[in-house]
């Protein structure tokens, strides 16, 4: 999930993204001109016989909007398929 400018590297989250205690990624967007990127959001692979269990995947990205505004977002991988939207925050 990307708010603002599309990043060059989609795999890793923006430097402003932190981890919540439950493992969810979290960003704060204070202005409609701010940019942030969740990095890949993907569940862990299924368990496979004879291999150690894979670490849990990241499946949640929380964004806090402390100010009012319209915040457009895209899935940078699938935006050409229509995976776009906006969050409207009222005062």
Structure notes:
- The protein is mainly beta.
- Helix content is 0%, strand content 29%.
- The protein has no helices and 7 strands.
- The protein has strands at 2-3, 18-19, 25-28, 36-37, 61-64, 69-74, 84-89.
- The strands form 2 sheets. Strands 4-1-6-7 form a 4-stranded antiparallel sheet, with no helix packed on it. The chain has a 3-stranded mixed sheet with strand order 2-3-5, with no helix packed on it.
- A hairpin with a 5-residue loop joins strand 2 (18-19) and strand 3 (25-28).
- The protein is elongated.
- The chain starts with a strand and ends with a strand.
- 12% of the residues are buried.
Uncertain residue ranges: none
List SSEs in N-to-C order: EEEEEEE
In order across it, which strands form the biggest sheet? Answer: 4-1-6-7
Secondary structure class reads mainly beta
From the alpha-carbon coordinates, what is the Rg to the nearest angstrom? 15 Å
Largest sheet: 4 strands, antiparallel
Question: Oligomer, anyone?
Answer: single chain
**Counted beta strands:** 7
Number of helices, counting only DSSP H or I runs of 4 residues or more: 0
Alpha carbon gap, first and last residue:
24 Å
DSSP strand content:
25-35%
Mean pLDDT: 90
Helix content: under 10%
